[in-house]
Amino acid sequence: MSRLVIKYRDEDSQKSSWGCVASGCTFLRQGNAQLERALKHATTCKILQADHVELWRQAIQESGDNSLGARLKKDLAAEDIPMEVEPPMKRLRAQNTLNMADLRETGKRVKEEARQLFQDKVDHVIMRLICVRGLVPHVIESPEWKELMGLLSDSYHPTSATTFADKHIPREAVYVREKQIKALRMINNLTLTFDGNTTRKPHSVYTVHATTPSRETYFLDAHEASDERHTTQWVTDKLLKTIRSVGEGNWGATCSDSTNVTKAGRRELVSIVGTMLDFCDAVHHLHNTIGDINKLPKLKFLMSMLKGIIKYFSKSTYSTTILRKERNLAGDDEPVKALEKIGKTRFGTYWTAANALDPCLPHIRNLVVAKSIKFKNTKIQGMFMNRASGKYSKFEQSILQYITIVAPIIRALWSLEAAHANASDVFIFWLAIIATLNDLFSKGPNVTGVPVSLTCEVTAIINKRYHEFFTNEVYFVAFTLDPRYPNSDFLKKPTANATTIVIPALSQRTGQRTPLPYPHAYTRVKDFLKEKLQKDLAHYVANPDSVLATSIFKVLSAAEVASGLRHQLKAFWHGEWPFNQQVKDGNPLAWWESLQDHPHARVLAHLAIKIFSVLVNSMPDERTNSTITWFNSPTRGSQNAQTLVDMIQIGQCRQVPEHRRERATGCPNWQRR
């Protein structure tokens, strides 16, 4: 501990204090230094990590090795090792009596070791209750808790909340992080996702997650710097630190929402780590598309009335109760559903609120006319009371139009929230959105009731968001490489004047030279894959011992890799062997993985596996931020960011035992009607 802290003593007041040994670190505490608190700071001190790397690593090692999880693992492993039976000692002639003192001492030591193991097991369960189930730490300081522990066992000595906060939780978090990094170093094609959040204190935090191809998610880091500006350079530097703690060659992509800083940070990141793909979060982009529709002037009346009605019922339990009774008395076929509040962070919250309100409108009007409920907002009250004004009919028609227009977007959004969604799914669902809206608008205003002006405005928003999102060719490439969707079902055939590409090899089916179908699409795919292959090859040349060293680059020369991509892509484009296998369980990643060792498919499979392995949304960060909000309630608003991070990292790791996890393997599906 003496190497981690500097001790101070005020000559005037004779008071002691201590601080971090790293120069430039402003951490300072009153009183005498304690090992638990010194380690708690040292393991998270960025200045110590930068200036005293070896000392920081020793603090990490000390903290992790003495965590509850590490001690329990060691003790339980020791219990499985059979004890060696020593041969009986030869009795000496001078020994007339048995020495009981040594036996008593040994018995006391064994008993104390067993009690300490029991203490660690109970403390570990209590720590999981705190980090997984949200047990408030101050509860374990209460007399009732201590009474309960005493009734359960005399062998357990209640541990204080301070010990959990300063010792057990920080050390366990270090242990969990080291285990995660060790596991991730053995996995390729990881996805890095990140997002920002603010606690109640307030502290500003950027969460960083790693997701494996099998969609296991690890909460790796939370970079807190409330006293610094979160510029593009700051975000890039923090993300690079996380990436390099695992290894640059292990990462396949990065994904986040598209604020100015996060978008620029992603672009800077992929320019430094060339093996990574750049993904804009598909879910956030669809949410923003719905947000643009909500802001249209023609929907201003609808949005204003919708918010007013929902706000009234969210604050009036009496009105909500009699509305539920009214719907029950009406004998609706569908079960009575609660109205949905309009939240600030929920995706598509206006649509869910409108969809829940729509079947309730006739009942609300009956209750207003019967004077059972009365809105304080005179515009809303007048709309329901005065049937002749036409405002009620206008509102009813507007809410139905809004639900119909936004429905394909919100349903695509919900589907793409799935952990196994891939880049091809994003492209397919956007095509489905556009096709659905095109069918709707082509029926004309006389059938749909949607004004032509609103149709044009919605179409302009969809086109703008589509072109904005699909500047990245990875989605189109993934779509064309997806064995679930034959290109002939979607791509247009070239016109008579279009240039065609003739391949020199003979077709296996006809024995003749045939033109390459869909040449423009083929060129787009070839150029994209060629660029990515060059970057992977350059990374291997610079890092021959990286994870990529075990792949195709170890057994093939650069010329063979380039030739392999050219011939294999053409064979795939024609649907020839070995690319003519059926897809099992609708899983394109598994289909490509079955070809990764095939000599006539492995180069193209290497690129396709990366594209289908990575995550296309930042839902891990959304879930973690929701947990932060849950832990950081108003009554616990004084928590610092590192405490929250430690608790959530432990909670996410310990929530479900590994041997009981059941992982879904399917991808989102869409159906043509």
Structure, explained:
- The chain is an alpha+beta fold and 673 residues long.
- The chain is built from 26 helices and ten strands.
- The protein is globular and about 105 Å long.
Provide the descriptors you would attach to this structure in a database record.
five-stranded mixed sheet, three-stranded antiparallel sheet, 8% strand, globular, 673 residues, alpha+beta
Question: Within the largest sheet, what's the order of strands?
Answer: 6-5-4-7-8
**Radius of gyration, whole Å:** 32 Å
Q: What percent of residues are in strands?
A: 5-15%
Report the major sheet: 5 strands, mixed
Low-confidence stretches: 498-506, 657-665
| Mean of pLDDT | 84
Q: Share of helix among residues? A: 40-55%
Number of strands: 10
Overall, the morphology is globular
- Report, as a whole number of angstroms, the end-to-end distance: 69 Å
Structural class: alpha+beta
* Structure annotation, total helices: 26
List the helices and strands and how they pair.
Blueprint: E1 5-9, E2 16-20, E3 28-30, H1 35-42, H2 46-51, H3 53-65, H4 68-80, H5 100-132, H6 143-152, H7 161-184, E4 190-198, E5 204-211, E6 217-224, H8 232-246, E7 251-256, H9 260-272, E8 277-280, H10 282-294, H11 300-315, H12 317-330, H13 349-357, H14 361-369, H15 378-385, H16 391-416, H17 423-442, H18 445-448, H19 452-469, H20 474-481, E9 501-502, E10 515-516, H21 519-542, H22 558-574, H23 588-593, H24 602-613, H25 619-631, H26 641-654
